[in-house]
Amino acid sequence: MTIWAGRSLIILSIAHLVGMGAQNTKHFDDWFSGALWGLSRDEFVQPSGANGAFWLVVASFAVPLLLLGVLITQLAKRGIGIPQSTGWGLGLWCIVGALILEPAPLALGLVPAVLLILDARRTAAEREPAPTSSPSEPTPRVPERGTATPAGHRA
């Protein structure tokens, strides 16, 4: 499940970058000519034109999510578990974003989030140690520190 969570993040990220990039190709020249250097504070507060397109494509969360997807996929292939908190954080971010802006594909991020949470729970359940004694056998009592042992000695 974790590998598929990583792969789905990669797919969503690439789809975002390609989709938004294709819609904003007219701004590519501005991006690479230095036109965005030295923008006023107002342009950062209310980005538009080439600046707004830059924040939708290059500076969007698609790039970090792509890197996260690659990392998750590589760790899963090596058998390294992903903390459940990663899935919860991703899921919470997607829910908040989707509540603020709909329609938006942010809700699709819930798919890898749920996969990460479920796989982390499954892995944790598999790692639970099996009981070493049967219920019919009494568990040996270990005396607490400083209490007398049956022979009268202090532990």
Q: What tags apply to this protein structure?
A:
mainly alpha, 155 residues, elongated, single chain, 59% helix
Radius of gyration: 26 Å
Which regions are unreliable across 5 or more consecutive residues at pLDDT < 50? none
What profile does the largest beta sheet have?
none
Q: Residue share in helices?
A: 55-70%
Number of helices: 7
User: Total strand count, please?
Assistant: 0
C-alpha termini separation: 49 Å
N-to-C SSE string, H for helix and E for strand: HHHHHHH
Strand content: under 5%
Globular, elongated, flat, extended or rod-shaped: what is the shape? elongated
Secondary structural class: mainly alpha
Indicate the mean pLDDT: 87
Short description:
By secondary structure, the protein is mostly helical.
Structural features, described:
The chain is mostly helical and 155 residues long. Helices cover 59% and strands 0% of the residues. The chain is elongated.
Q: What is the topological layout?
A:
Blueprint: H1 2-23, H2 28-33, H3 41-45, H4 49-56, H5 62-77, H6 84-100, H7 110-127
Helix pairs in contact: 1-5, 1-7, 6-7
